[in-house]
Design brief:
By secondary structure, this protein is mainly β. The protein has one helix at about 90-100, and strands at about 20-30, 30-40, 45-50, 60-65, 70-75, 80-85. The longest helix is centred in the last third of the chain and has 11 residues, at about 90-100. It is globular and about 35 Å long.
Length: about 110
């Protein structure tokens, strides 16, 4: 029996990813606080840079501007990057506010 999440959502990788440079602390049920470095984010999930000792399906809870606390499941990982899927899709208006807060430089924002 698998202890990880049952990832049943179809592949939604077509969501627009926004580049970010955001160090943050994630909460893990076994490891406690884990430092992450987000390098991109979408309404469906995010990617981090750095080695993680997690198995596919394990959950983290992170806190994002405008979004607040949200759980995410590890979908894939390699030596230096990992991709996570949010437990729920982030509302478009909240996501836009978050991106604006994370990317104060207008040149980095996606065109509207």
């Amino acid at each position: 029996m698998s202890a990880g999440a049952q990832l049943s959502v179809t592949d939604q990788r077509r969501s627009t990813r926004h580049p970010v440079d955001l160090p943050l602390i994630a909460e893990h049920r076994r490891f406690g606080d884990i430092m992450l470095h987000l390098i991109n984010v979408s309404t469906n999930g995010f990617m981090v840079r750095g080695e993680l000792s997690l198995a596919r399906g394990e959950r983290l809870t992170i806190r994002l501007p405008q979004i607040g606390r949200i759980e995410a499941f590890l979908v894939w990982g390699d030596a230096d990057r990992s991709g996570f899927q949010f437990e729920r899709i982030v509302r478009a208006d909240d996501f836009a506010k978050m991106i604006k807060a994370l990317q104060p430089n207008p040149r980095l924002r996606a065109p509207h």
